[in-house]
Amino acid sequence: MNVQLTNMQTRDVEALLHPYTNAAAHRQVGAHVIETGKGVYVYDEHGREYLEGMAGLWCAGLGFGDKELADAVAEQVHKLPYYHLFAGRSHEPAIELAEKIKELAPGMARVIFQSSGSEANDTQVKLAWYYNNALGRPEKKKIISRKKGYHGVTIASASMTGLPYNHIDWDLPLDRFISTGTPHHWREALDGETEQEFSARLAHELEELIEREGPETVAAFIAEPVMGAGGVIVPPAGYFEAIRPVLEKYDVLMISDEVINGFCRTGEWFGADTYNVNPTSMSLAKQLTGGYAPLSAVALCREQAEVIEQHTGKIGTLGHGFTYGGHPVGCAAGVAAIRIYQERKILDHVRKVAPKFQGHLQRLKDHPLVGEARGVGLIGALELSPDKSGKKTFDPAGKLGAKLMGELVARGVILRAMGDSLGFCPPMIITEEEIDALFAPMEECLDATLAFAKAEGLV
């Protein structure tokens, strides 16, 4: 393949190893270099404009170039660019942000900070183990996650992630990590099975799994209210209402992974609110700072927090923490982001524009290449399929998703293909006119992808 790379791209391929990228192919085609951003748009090294329909990586809920948020970050850099929370030290941004999180997440009593969603979910595992040791239950350590769930890339969080690329040749998952079914009614339901019946069956399968493993060995169940990187899978009716009694029966912690769902995205402050999850703890990141600084948090219910705190008195310390966990700049960004969400009534705005966004998605479900359109709030997906049944997939998987994503980029729209599902997660400041612009090239791109599929013999 003979491709002339720009100087910027040549420097990139000689310097960087990119996550979630085919490195061999990347050396041939080079990077797509993004230089600036404003509102819902980003601009590449050649000045080309793109509507960023994924808010970067589900992060930039307030878009790009927000002056108030950037100024808050700059002010904190000048005031206190770094400090830690080790050995009882603290700083005002961390205290204020923890208080704000507690106000927004009823039932949560303590907050511990990290730098990424992966670190937050890794911390969840350690705290679940520590908590059960404190209660004298050394065998209660297994973590149940779901196939197609995404919880990160550290060794523990990747073990909970239920996607093949996060396990193949990484020697994962580790022991103590087990999985249960994906709550995707369209793909996984039996013929004639309603959403409520499907939810009841998944809850029964979860109970059977816990009993088979031994309830005395199962510590926690982790779930995204809406599954993100697994394809934006929206839970069926009654799912968490069916799951919760099973967890309570066997004294299993309910971890709500809000890394993508949190901070207005689903039309409530948290996905747990949208779907009645009632968690014992929550993992927060991404829109926590609007993407303007790395930061994540674990919020714990009072009972779990108090058991952990009392156990540190026995041991002498909480032997866990990160150098940059609770970084003052990240915390200042989080405080500012939440203030902006509240003062600009972002939650109300999401609720106002979501019907137009979801309407565009649903109108595309009749395209012959689209098997299912799904979403909630300002998050959604189109899943490409050989037919509408949900029982067939393309072979090879992912080829058409990548083709559709490329067609959209060529027309100035950035979205993300997750296999053959195309994800949508625009900045939450998006206007109705910009939603129209986001979807404007979709039918043309779907038609071009369908023509490609026919030429390749895939349909």
UniProtKB/TrEMBL annotation:
Keywords: Aminotransferase, Pyridoxal phosphate, Pyruvate, Transferase. GO terms for molecular function: adenosylmethionine-8-amino-7-oxononanoate transaminase activity; pyridoxal phosphate binding. Gene3D superfamilies: Aspartate Aminotransferase, domain 1, Type I PLP-dependent aspartate aminotransferase-like (Major domain). CDD domains: OAT_like (cd00610). It comes from the Bacteria. NCBIfam families: PRK06105.1. This is 4-aminobutyrate---pyruvate transaminase. It comes from Albimonas pacifica. The lineage of its organism: Bacteria, Pseudomonadati, Pseudomonadota, Alphaproteobacteria, Rhodobacterales.
